[in-house]
Amino acid sequence: MAKSFDFHNTPGHLVRRAHQRTVALFMEETAGFDVTPVQFAILHELLAQPGEDQVTLAARVAFDAATSGSVIGRLEKRGWIRREPDTRDRRRKLLWITPEGEVAALQMRDAAQRVQERLMAPLNAQERVDLMSILSKVVYNHQDPAGTSGA
């Protein structure tokens, strides 16, 4: 007889559910901005690395480079980022956060911090440290399909 498979208690299922919870909390906390977690991550990275190329930026936020163009396009339409061809290689697109995008990203940082606090609220201090250590091991000790350590 085959062993029972307890799907609801598998690591993959629980990680997916935790991700769903995180996104739901993010959408609640940032409702006034009409922004997705990936859009926020892109804006946040451009604050730190203005003029980053589109492919590198996608890797830095762990997002598919092929799909990032449409996300970046939506931010560009909102006037939050500007995209220009690299003068040395016109195939490369360089990105900058606009002043309006910077204001929005900075305003969203408090909301993003509240998401993290709400997500971790059920855990005590040691459990929070342990969870971060375990998640870091899972994320950064696997290879992504491109052969680089998980971005």
UniProtKB/TrEMBL annotation:
One of its GO terms (molecular function) is DNA-binding transcription factor activity. Residues 1-140 form the HTH marR-type domain. Pfam families: MarR. It comes from the Bacteria. One of its GO terms (biological process) is response to stress. PANTHER family: TRANSCRIPTIONAL REGULATOR, TRANSCRIPTIONAL REGULATOR, MARR FAMILY. This is MarR family transcriptional regulator. It comes from Acidovorax kalamii.
